């Protein structure tokens, strides 16, 4: 059995327990329901514990299987795509404040789509990048009233 396969679900279980304990230490509210501030973090902690336990059970059941996922991940053009996506994400974060949400999101998404889909689907790439950038800007800026750069 490869112990590293069980490391992540175990870590998530520990993290879920820590969040649950910390959630009970949140101060009670003076207005309205005194336990109101506790419900959301406790609910999320319980969900994290539940899903982590399910993940651990899944990994325990298939602990003897030969997994080729990591070897497949490191072959072909996948490592280049991962590296390029990370670089594009860094570029996006650097451009975001300088040129604003709309333009930087369009450039990031458009470039990423061209890398993934290729030049043959150039029209689809541009339409998706423009539509997503505009509608996400509209949703945040106009509908939700969030100030974007």
TrEMBL record:
Keywords: Membrane, Transmembrane, Transmembrane helix
DUF1468 domain sequence ranges: 9-149
Keyword hit for Transmembrane: yes
Segments traversing the membrane: 38-57, 78-95, 101-117, 122-140
Presence of keyword Transmembrane: yes
Name recorded for this polypeptide: Tripartite tricarboxylate transporter TctB family protein
């Amino acid at each position: 059995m490869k112990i590293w396969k069980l490391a992540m679900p175990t870590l998530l279980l520990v993290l879920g327990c820590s969040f649950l304990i910390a959630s009970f230490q949140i101060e009670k509210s003076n207005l309205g329901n005194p336990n109101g501030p506790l419900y959301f973090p406790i609910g999320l902690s319980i969900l994290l514990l539940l899903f982590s336990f399910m993940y651990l059970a899944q990994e325990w059941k298939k602990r003897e299987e030969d997994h080729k996922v990591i070897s497949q991940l490191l072959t072909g053009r996948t490592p280049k795509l991962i590296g390029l996506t990370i670089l594009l994400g860094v570029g996006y974060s650097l451009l975001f404040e300088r040129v604003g949400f709309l333009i930087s999101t369009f450039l990031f998404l458009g470039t990423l789509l061209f890398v993934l889909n290729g030049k043959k689907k150039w029209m689809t790439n541009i339409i998706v990048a423009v539509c997503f950038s505009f509608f996400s800007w509209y949703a945040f800026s106009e509908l939700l009233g969030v100030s974007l750069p």
